[in-house]
């Protein structure tokens, strides 16, 4: 049974991509001389790539309104990242930085969804 909801499919792809890339990052930090100070930057890059891949898949699946499917995929992904991060650090606060991250996630998702719809048109 195939899942038809493009936003769910996009989020699933984004989440699985994120987990895979984070595991690669963990291995790199453990077995190479990669400095731990580069982890925040690399983590942001992983989130961007994950949202982009998920939004591409959501846009491809939706076949119309790719910007909407991609933006919603990015929003859900970033919302969950911010919520989990807040729970891990035992303070659920909504800061300007977390709002900027969510807006960036929505924007990247919208762009990915637009590109995904255009790949589907071929």
UniProtKB/TrEMBL annotation:
Transmembrane segments: 7-29, 41-60, 67-92, 98-119
Xref: InterPro entries: DUF3792_TM
Lineage: superkingdom: Bacteria
Pfam families: DUF3792
Keywords assigned: Membrane, Transmembrane, Transmembrane helix
Protein name (database record): TIGR04086 family membrane protein
Top-level taxonomy: Bacteria, Bacillati, Bacillota, Desulfuribacillia, Desulfuribacillales
């Amino acid at each position: 049974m195939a899942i038809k909801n493009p936003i769910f499919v996009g989020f699933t792809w984004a989440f699985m991509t994120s987990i895979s890339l984070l595991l690669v990052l963990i291995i790199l930090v453990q077995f190479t001389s990669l400095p731990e100070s580069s982890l925040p930057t690399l983590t942001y890059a992983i989130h961007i790539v994950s949202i982009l891949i998920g939004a591409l898949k959501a846009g491809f699946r939706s076949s119309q309104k790719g910007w909407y499917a991609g933006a919603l995929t990015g929003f859900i992904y970033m919302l969950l990242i911010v919520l989990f991060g807040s729970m891990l650090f035992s303070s659920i606060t909504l800061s300007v930085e977390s709002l900027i991250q969510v807006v960036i996630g929505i924007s990247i998702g919208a762009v990915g969804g637009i590109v995904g719809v255009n790949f589907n048109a071929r």
